[in-house]
Design brief:
Elements lengths: L9 E3 L1 H6 L9 H16 L4 E3 L5 H15 L3 H4 L12 E3 L5 E2 L2 E2 L4 E3 L3
Parallel strand pairs: 1-2
Antiparallel strand pairs: 3-6, 4-5
């Protein structure tokens, strides 16, 4: 992974959102450009911002507020939703519990999926 990027990449994913239900999406050149940009950002910066996702500003604000409140809770409260095999690997992870390439990540996290 490179580390010489100058800014966090901002990627417009609207072509992906617009074609998400199109069975022929794999051949769409505009969509392939988005996929290439996502791939490059993951390889070079390790993270990125997205726009064109269609999520409303009020909803994003609400999610940020709820998230901040959760991470301010005492550890015992957060551990009530600890990630386990029984939880389907969904839930809270303390600092150092998530491991990437054999090294503990230095962040708290809540992993969700559906």
């Amino acid at each position: 992974m490179g580390s010489d990027f100058k800014a966090i990449p901002l990627i417009d994913i609207s072509p992906l959102v617009e074609k998400i239900d199109d069975p022929a999406m794999a051949g769409d050149e505009g969509l392939l450009d988005v996929v290439r940009m996502l791939d490059d950002a993951c390889r070079e910066a390790g993270f990125f911002y997205v726009k064109g996702h269609g999520i409303s500003e009020p909803l994003m604000t609400e999610v940020r507020d709820v998230t901040r409140k959760f991470f301010q809770l005492p550890r015992e409260e957060k551990l009530k939703i600890k990630m386990t095999p029984q939880s389907g690997y969904r839930g809270y992870q303390r600092v150092g519990e998530n491991v990437t390439k054999g090294k503990p990540d230095m962040h708290e996290a809540i992993d969700l999926n559906h």
